[in-house]
Design a protein that fits this description.
The complex is a heterotrimer. Chain A is built from 3 helices and 3 strands; from the N terminus they run H-H-E-H-E-E. Chain A is of the alpha+beta class. Helices cover 40% and strands 12% of the residues of chain B. Chain B has helices spanning 3-7, 14-22, 28-46, 54-69, 111-118, 161-168, 185-191, 225-235, 270-273, 280-295, 311-326, 345-356, 359-372, 378-401, 424-429, 435-440, 469-483; strands spanning 49-52, 80-84, 122-127, 174-179, 194-197, 217-222, 265-269, 299-303, 404-408, 444-451, 457-463. The mean pLDDT of chain B is 96. Classes of the chains: A alpha+beta, B alpha/beta, C alpha+beta. At the A-B interface, helix 1, helix 2 and strand 3 of A face helix 11, helix 12, helix 13, helix 14 and helix 15 of B. Strand 1 (62-63) of chain A pairs parallel with strand 2 of chain C.
């Protein structure tokens, strides 16, 4: 088993996802197969190779320290599921 | 205007429509109306659109007509386009085909949208896609599926399935899609239209909802190569809002629409042609296409992209890793869907994400989170980025020997709806020909090059070195003009 | 068994740029909620960060000022976790390749100079503010602060006492203010500190288990919390127990630290290089330019004050504890060049006034020029020292110069010997009993006579002259 159900639950937790009991086996199996496939990368000799995180070789993209482009409070909150007094509202953090 | 011609205004290409608009033979209002009527008539069967902005489009059409009247016409003025719903349109819905953004209305325009507006283009509406661009069939849309206009029992490809289908069925004059692992080129191939993924950094990503930041690019889907050049002219260019956009001058891509392939060296990456599962129809069609190129004066040379067989593995580590982070923001706090009556914050996050994201998106988030997590980073993300470096080297070496690379786009033509939904890994493997271009950042184009025995479109792919879209357009144009596959339309 | 504390401090300093680190929103404090926001800092779909060059400039200043090695190439990384004040679900920070590392800061505690190492300095974005509703089960999120630029300064675990911690923080803050890159205000949140503390047997090289302390909102709290935590850990170790590695919150009301263990899950931040931001390349030319443009730093200024103004070290340090105070001193000395006198007046009377009124030196009601003017009058014997204090108070209240007040109120010191002599004689004639007592040996009565003379002259008589004339007349 490339990955166990418990590991899937742990990772889902990190990502704030809930996998329901009924799907857990299937999800574990599907992801297990994908991870197994990905293991083929171990066949490649990558000693002394630098990893690439950008497809281009540019550096130093800057902007000047100038103020512009605010949204109005209304615009900022225009898609808010819940709002009050100009702020976004969320349920209380558990336990605090 | 003759009634007969009037009814087929929707079948025009961008450049044909432009000529008629410029010579005042038609108006943008008429043109836009014609396309909207056509959408109304046939989109029930296809399902390309998620939202149609009828009123807005007509207003834009009228404004375009004023621009034309003032002799301010540009190549895209008055041209009605469809836009993949992954691109932010100010004041208009942008859902990414996800329930989690069902009611989202961005308060800003993507840079490409601003450019289109300045050019006087008309936005018809937002078209369907795989949710957050994750998929190759548009079956992962959280809203509805889109059907291939050539055979409505089959997929149009993905993730820009709505774009490709809308172009193929003349439900727009052109479209903008996005490509992270083939999402423009593959649906273009399945629907017999032209689709280009520009060089990474050529087109601004500001306003493109991020899937995999180091791979995503916006690009055109069009009825022919000329239209592709016209759209590329407008959308390309450095954007200070996008740190990864490249400050390189944009050539006039129309200049590449010239005949003559003599002396052109076309590389055939041998690993691509050795792929298991390559449909014989596809294989044969690509062979024919190569022969056509030869007749046009091109020379062929065998090249090798030795790390091709790892492309799927590299992509399906890097893309989910970046995506798992990019999609963290969909948490129900500031916009989008939030589950009702959560008992506390933690529950709000979990039920919002679990109900808002579809299964493929959740799968990729889990893979990405796992691959970045403590203890696994080096083995997965670290390793994949190293192999990516080797793949970039592969392309550099190949382009020492040739000017463009030619390959199939997909191993087989469009499959039946529902055929691969149970096997995600199998679906991923069919991206083998398109993924590498995103990983290496090189440009790629898919153009129609024939049909299978059961009349399904087959496309061919050309890939070029960084910022060499001109070469791709030139070769594609020559092939197109010699074969006229783009003139064939689905019977709807 | 003797234990020694091993302390490391993590400081987050808000940088005083006009706009945020990755977008063009204002960083100004105190605006109504969610009014200094844009799609980028709100973390809306499709947005991208663009780096504010000034943030790099400021980070470089701090790096160079603390003798750090500046990385030729540094990168931004995403720190992934979920919280409502973190719109993107990740914080853009720096992880494997920070902008600077391996610096140090010199502090002085009880006369001993100590070097505290700086492990690293990196740039990152601030989060928003979460306000918990006191009555209802909800919180309000204000994202104005999201994206304000921060530098995180991590010290080596070289600190060995709460006093050293306090001195380190003060020094760091002073440098930041001298560089004009940060206000250094702990109460307002522009300067924040977390502490890592462990104990080990004295002489041991190995580190003990450490705890992290949070919610330290003033220098005093930092010292108290560290002090408490040292005693807490000591008690555990002395009983043969184990210190648990955890995060603890300082509670200023109960003056204790409390474990956050139950509320916290292990954070796996899943750091990876941010693909939306390009690598940062800093060449030698840029570093040299920053070095050349550095203002005089606290230690340099202190040394210069000691030598240039012949001030004792303690006074020099006091005056250079803030750049504004040092500037005030120098402005004053430029006009009235007696550094010791100026120093005494500033550290004694001026700072006393400012403290009483809760004002900073920048808000001083007496300008440096005016103070110099006052001191000049004293040195010219126009004013007696005693009257000078009263004049100073008047200056503070009215903002007028010393000269103006002296003229208006006719406070010019009487130095005319004959005038004073006349008054002295008058006083002597009026107090025959005291004269007899004085001549009889009660020398202390000289104070009585001086007092009477002063009363007669409304305090304006030059005390030196009064004394001399009294001595002459009374004899002895």
């Amino acid at each position: 088993m490339k990955i166990t159900k418990n590991e899937i639950i742990h990772v889902a937790n990190l990502a704030r996802l809930e996998i329901d009991e009924a799907s857990l086996d299937k999800v574990t199996e599907q992801i297990g197969r994908i991870l197994e496939y990905v293991d083929t990368l171990n066949q490649v000799d990558t000693k002394n190779i630098q990893g690439t995180s950008h497809a281009i070789t540019l550096t130093n993209a800057f902007r000047e320290d100038i103020i512009k482009d605010h949204l109005t409070n209304n615009q900022a909150l225009s898609n808010a599921p819940e709002k009050e007094n100009g702020a976004f509202v969320v349920p209380k953090i558990v336990g605090r | 205007m003759k009634r007969e011609t009037k009814m087929k205004l929707y079948a025009l290409t961008i450049h044909e429509a432009h000529d008629l608009l410029k010579s005042r033979q038609i108006s943008s209002t008429e043109l836009t109306r014609a396309v909207l009527d056509h959408i109304e008539k046939i989109d029930d069967k296809i399902g390309a659109y998620l939202s149609v902005f009828e009123e807005n489009a007509m207003i834009q059409a009228r404004e375009a007509d004023h621009m034309i009247a003032r002799n301010e016409i540009q190549p895209l003025t008055g041209i009605p386009l469809s836009i993949k719903d992954l691109i932010c349109t100010k004041g208009l819905p942008t859902t990414c085909a996800s329930k989690i953004l069902e009611n989202f209305i961005p308060p800003y325009d993507a840079t490409v949208m601003s450019k289109l507006k300045n050019a006087g283009a008309v936005t018809l509406g937002k078209v369907n896609m795989d949710e957050f661009a994750m998929g190759s069939s548009t079956e992962n849309s959280g809203m509805h599926i889109t059907r291939n206009p050539w055979d409505i029992t089959r997929i149009p490809g993905g993730s820009s399935g709505g774009s490709a289908a809308s172009v193929a069925a003349d439900m727009c004059i052109g479209s903008l899609g996005s490509d992270t692992g083939g999402s423009i080129r593959q649906p273009a191939s399945h629907c017999s239209v032209v689709g280009m993924k520009p060089t990474y950094g050529r087109v601004s990503r500001y306003g493109l909802v991020a899937f995999a930041s180091s791979l995503d690019q916006i690009g055109p889907l069009t009825k022919d190569v000329t239209d592709c050049a016209l759209l590329m002219n407008v959308i390309s260019g450095y954007d200070p809002h996008d740190s990864t956009s490249v400050p390189k001058d944009v050539p006039d891509f129309r200049r590449s629409l010239e005949k003559g392939l003599k002396g052109l060296k076309i590389g055939l990456p041998k690993e691509y042609y050795m792929t298991e599962g390559l449909d014989p129809d596809v294989s044969a069609t690509i062979d024919n296409a190569a022969n056509t190129m030869k007749d046009l004066g091109a020379e062929f040379v065998e090249v090798s992209l030795p790390h091709t067989k790892y492309a799927v593995a590299v992509y399906y580590v890097i893309a989910p890793c970046e995506a798992s982070s990019n999609l963290a923001r969909y948490d129900g706090v500031r916009y989008g869907f939030r589950d009702k009556d959560p008992k506390d914050l933690m529950q709000m996050y979990r039920s919002t994400k679990s109900k808002g994201f579809g299964p493929e998106v959740q799968r990729r988030i889990i893979i990405g989170t796992y691959a970045l997590s403590a203890g696994y980073y080096d083995a997965y993300y670290g390793k994949a980025s190293q192999v990516r470096t080797l793949m970039i080297e592969d392309f550099k070496n190949a382009f020492q020997k040739c000017d463009v690379l030619l390959s199939p786009v997909t191993p087989s033509p469009a499959f039946k709806i529902g055929e691969k939904t149970d096997d995600p890994l199998n679906m991923y493997l069919s991206d083998i020909f398109t993924l590498s271009a995103n990983l290496a950042g090189v440009p790629g184009i898919s153009i129609p090059c024939g049909f299978s025995k059961n009349n399904l479109p087959i496309g061919l792919q050309l890939m070029g070195s960084h910022f060499n879209e001109e070469m791709l357009i030139k070769v594609a144009y020559n092939f197109e003009q010699a074969t006229m596959f783009h003139k064939k339309k689905p019977s709807l | 068994m003797e234990f020694e504390p091993v302390i490391g401090l993590e400081v987050h300093a808000q940088l005083k740029t006009q706009s945020k680190i990755f977008c063009s929103c204002s960083t100004a404090f105190g605006a109504p909620p969610n009014t200094h926001v844009c799609p980028v800092c709100l973390g809306m779909p499709g947005v991208l960060p663009v780096l504010n060059k000034k943030v790099v400039e400021y980070a470089l200043r701090m790096a160079v000022a603390t003798g750090c090695q500046v990385a030729e190439i540094s990168r931004f990384a995403r720190k992934n976790y979920f919280y409502p004040d973190l719109p993107k679900g990740y914080q853009i920070s720096q992880y494997e390749l920070p902008i600077a590392a391996f610096g140090e800061v010199e502090i002085e505690v009880n006369g001993t100079a100590i070097k505290i190492g700086i492990t690293r300095i990196h740039m990152e974005e601030d989060a928003g503010k979460l306000n918990h509703d006191p009555h209802r089960p909800m919180s309000h999120v204000d994202l104005n602060r999201t994206g304000v630029p921060l530098i995180e300064i991590v010290s080596e675990p070289d600190i060995r006492s709460p006093e050293e911690a306090g001195a380190y923080l003060k020094k760091l803050r002073s440098i930041l203010r001298y560089l004009e890159i940060c206000d250094g205000n702990m109460e307002e949140g522009s300067f924040r500190c977390d502490a890592n503390i462990s104990l080990r047997p004295k002489g041991d090289e190995k580190f003990g288990t450490r705890t992290e302390l949070k919610n330290l909102n003033s220098f005093k709290h930092v010292e108290k919390a560290i002090h408490y935590e040292i005693r807490r850990q000591q008690a555990i170790l002395e009983e043969g127990g184990q210190v648990i590695q955890e995060t603890r919150l300082w509670n200023p009301d109960s003056q204790k630290t409390y474990s956050m263990r139950d509320k916290e899950e292990a954070h796996d931040y899943r750091y990876f290089p941010d693909p939306d931001l390009l690598p940062l390349v800093i060449d030698k030319a840029w570093i040299d330019q920053v070095r050349n443009d550095l203002p005089e730093l606290p230690d340099e200024k202190t040394d210069r004050f000691i030598h240039q103004y012949s001030l004792p070290e303690q006074d020099a340090e006091r005056l250079t504890s803030s750049k504004e105070l040092a500037d005030y001193f120098e402005a004053c000395v430029t006009i009235f060049s007696e550094p010791k006198a100026v120093c005494n007046w500033i550290t004694g009377i001026l700072l006393g006034l400012l403290n009483a009124q809760g004002k900073t030196i920048e808000e001083s009601p007496v300008t440096a020029e005016n103070l110099a003017g006052l001191l000049k009058l004293v040195s010219e014997d126009v004013l007696s020292a005693k009257i000078a204090k009263a004049v100073f108070d008047e200056m503070a209240e009215t903002g007028k110069s010393a000269r103006q007040i002296v003229d208006e109120k006719g406070l010019v010191q009487v130095t005319d010997s004959s005038a004073i002599e006349a008054v002295v004689q008058k006083v002597i004639d009026a107090s025959p009993d005291e004269v007899v007592a004085y001549k009889g040996g009660k020398r202390k009565l000289i104070g009585f006579f001086v007092g009477q003379v002063m009363k007669e002259t409304s305090g304006k008589a030059n005390p030196g002259i009064v004394n001399k004339i009294l001595q002459d007349k009374l004899g002895g």
